[in-house]
Amino acid sequence: SLATVFGTGLFYLSTRFLWADSVSAILVAILVGKAAWDIIKDAARDLVDTAPNEERIAKYRECALQIDGIVGVTRLRGRYYSRRVALDLDIQVAGTLSVDTGHDLAQRVRDRLMHEFPAVYDVVVHVDPASEAL
User: With a threshold of 0.70, does the pTM exceed it?
Assistant: First the structure.
């Protein structure tokens, strides 16, 4: 708005500033184009299946590994859906643990990731015995 008022004002102020209206129109067009690009970029990210960056994935991995009983994380994938993240990971636990204990550890991983990272709305955890993955 200011560019339009400035350019139009100079244009009507004196014939020496006939170029001011054109310059302000170009400036406004550039600003509108940038705003449109930002909107398109954000909308495309929301619509296209994108993954979190490696730094974010490393933080998710570290969080899972802090739970006692988790020997390793062999696979961790994430997908953005709008501004939220769904995670899918494989954890390693001692092969001698019961199915119930493995399930409890998986639930603890899920709960902790969702608690520590509010953007995480879903976590699927697959449990592998550590001896099988080695």
Answer: no
